[in-house]
Amino acid sequence: MLDFIASLLPVFGLIVLGAVLRRLNFPGDAFWVPLEKLTYFVLFPALLFHAIAGADFAGAPIGRLGLILAAAMVLIAVILVAAKPALRTSGPAFTSIFQGAVRWNSFVALAAISALYGKEGLTLAAVAIAVMVPIANVLSVLALTRYAAAGSPSWSLIGGQLLRNPLLQACAAGIAVQMLSVPVPEPVLVAADMLGKASLALGLLAVGSSLDLAVARLEAANVAIASVLKLLVSPVIVTLLAMPLGLGGTAFGCALICASVPGAASSYILAKQLGGDAPLMAGITTVQTLAAMLTMPLVLWLFL
Q1: Which of 208, 228, 271, 278 maximizes the CB count within 10 A of its CB?
Q2: Measured between alpha carbons, how far is residue 186 from residues 173, 190, 192, 197 in Å?
Q3: How wide is the angle at C-alpha 238 spanned by C-alphas 167 and 199, nearest 5°?
Q4: DSSP character for 39?
Q5: Neighbours of 160 (CB within 10 A)
Q6: Count of H-run helices and E-run strands, the chain
Q7: Which domains can be identified in the chain, with CATH numbers?
């Protein structure tokens, strides 16, 4: 277990550093929003494009990896919808629990996978993102329109969310280069690699800067439900699905990390846009991020 803690320590250390810098107001509040945008729209997509476009997928179990992660995410969604009557929460609050249990923080996942598995892991992580991001977006928008807005599913909104998602755009570009054998000039790949490496550190600092425990104390039960499902139940489901499908090695390690990372900070934006409980959403992601510092090494130690 100490090995996993040592590997993940730099990841969570940067998150803590981001939180400390934000509390010290350094370099100023005006810095963090542009940093998040730069990371999300430029640096992170560059990392994904480089990981896919320059990868060798020969022999990689990408089909089984994608199937397991997709099935685990859908199972969590089904469990929550079935349990909703017993939760006794409002519609908007339920959607925040839902997003907290279903969505995942790809910044933390990529940084952890890079620390443990290097370039091979990043390639598989890019595949995971190409599968999980659209499914998470579709499920979240469906839940919000059904339980927060009490309306019909907005397929045009879902489509717009996916088409405008820079992570999916980068994955699509990388897949196109792979499938069509498009030659990419070496300077382009080198530049994408440099930008991508910057995304890991800056993305983690941005995650830390967004932490806020104020609301979490008032919504302890709802926060706990979302956190247990995301940080503990989800990796158990992935492990149970991986066993009969024979997914092992680096691929299983990547799947386990993707399943055990905290929820995404972008969930707050979607909750705000579609009538969810945005303050509760912020509290859930904060607690999950802090709790993951303990649960991720534990999960990896138990199942790897």
Answers
A1: 271
A2: 16, 6, 10, 17
A3: 25
A4: I
A5: 12
A6: 14, 0
A7: 2-303 (1.20.1530.20)
**Tokens standing for residue 83:** 């349990």
What are residue 135's phi and psi, to 5 degrees? -65, -45
What 8-state DSSP symbol labels residue 147?
I
- Could you tell me the pLDDT band of residue 245, with boundaries at 50, 70 and 90? very high
Q: Cα 69 to the chain's mean position, in Å?
A: 12
Residue type, 229: L
Integer Cα distance of 204 and 277 in angstroms: 24
The H or E element spanning position 179 is helix 166-180
Contacts of 281 (CB under 8 A, 6+ apart): 96, 99, 100, 267, 268, 271
**Whether 219 contacts 278, CB under 8 Å:** no
**Phi-psi category of residue 25: left, alpha or beta, with phi > 0 → left and psi -120 to 50 → alpha:** left
Nearest Cα residue to 126 out of 223, 36, 46? 46
Tell me, what DSSP letter sits at residue 253?
H
Q: What is the pLDDT of residue 273?
A: 77
Distance between CA 232 and CA 250 in Å, rounded?
A: 20
Predicted TM-score (pTM) of this structure: 0.88
Backbone angles phi, psi at 192, to 5 degrees: -65, -40
φ, ψ dihedrals at 92, nearest 5°:
-60, -40
Smallest CA-to-CA distance from 140 within 216, 223, 80, 217 is with: 80
- Report the greatest alpha carbon distance in the chain: 56
Both tokens assigned to 148? 């927060």
Q: Which pLDDT band, with edges at 50, 70 and 90, does 302 fall under? A: very high
Has residue 151 got a pLDDT over 70?
no
Phi, psi of 300 (to 5 degrees): -65, -40
